[in-house]
Amino acid sequence: MTLDIGVVGTGMMGQDHVQRLAASVPDARVVAVSDVVVEQAKRVGERVGARVYGDGHDLIADDGVQAVLVASPGPTHEELTLACIAAGKPVLCEKPLAPTTDACLRVLEAEAALPRRLVQVGYMRRYDDGFRALKQRLDEGLVGRALLLHCRHRNASVPAGFTSDMMITDSVVHDIDVTRWLLGQEIVAASVFKARPSSLAPAGLQDPQMVLLETDQGVLVDVESFVSCQFGYDIRYELVGETGTISLGEEPGPRIRQQGRHHGPIPADWRERFGSSYERELQEWVGGALRGQITGPSCWDGYAVTAVAEAAVESLTTGRRATVALVDRPALYG
Ligand code: ISE
Asked: Residue 242, class by beta-carbon neighbours within 10 Å (0-12 exposed, 13-18 middle, 19+ buried)?
């Protein structure tokens, strides 16, 4: 069986997904693409023989499209995901589910009225071998109960227009998702601390930031968000349990010892670091959509992550600890 997919948005991530679906997901076929920049959609569509639209809603309405991947900018996610729900089509929505909790709640309410899930949110770190091994060891009780989680999230640089809020809403959202998934706990408060800004950060960017998250079971999580680190894409975790620690990402690639030195590669960006996670995310999503069972990050996860990010942005603005209050979890999300 093959899943005929329409991809909305052919910018950097949309192009990446189209290429990956074509190259690495045998059960998928990209049959349509859309972008407000139609010329770009045409260029991307031509490579895979897909129909081309200038409006994502027309793509969703196309009877030949069985499932939709939304990779357009965040503010468009709510209306496009709602349109997929109304059309009864499975949708993989790139992060965030939507930029505000109110918008996420509207999507959540629409999906929660259905008998089964249609929406998956693109938090791809859950598909990474290292993150999965970390979770498995923790769940097996290897280091006892989790007490602390240290996360480092460093980008070499960011594009023009990247703001201090986006260091949370675009970057730290991944660490928020990993925290909730890894620990199986909700985050109840966020506090953001401003470090001395790097002289190499774009003017006006509060970079780096330290984000402190508190979970409902008292685990403390610190996230270093540093998006002008210059040297590469550097993602590291250390989980501190009662009897030991589990760490991840210290040596992301092969380590070479030669001529009195040791060195190794550092990924340039997340597409390189998480390439195999994106691949597995797409493979599992396509398999799930064909079986009618979507199991990846849910609308609930998308909503909870945005709610925590909103609290963290509030803390960045006010300088005070901000609490997170979630609505009751609908039955659809277990
Ligand atoms: C980027 O938009 C992503 O989603 C990456 O996964 C993240 O690590 C990076 O910091 C963001 O800018």
From this structure: exposed
Q: 323 CA to middle of ligand 1, Å? A: 24
Answer yes or no: pTM beyond 0.90.
yes
Give the H/E segment covering residue 279.
helix 275-291
* C-beta of 127 in contact with ligand 1 (< 6 A): no
Only one residue has tokens 């598909």, namely 127
Pocket test for ligand 1, best of 125, 167, 171 (most atoms within 8 A of CB): 171
- Residues 201-245: pLDDT tens digits? 999 999 999 999 999 999 999 999 999 999 999 999 999 999 999
Residues constituting the chain: 334
C-beta separation of 210 from 223 below 8 A? yes
The ligand 1 atom at the shortest distance from the C-alpha of residue 227 is: 10
Which residues sit opposite 200 in a β-bridge?
none
In contact, 262 and 256? CB cutoff 8 Å: yes
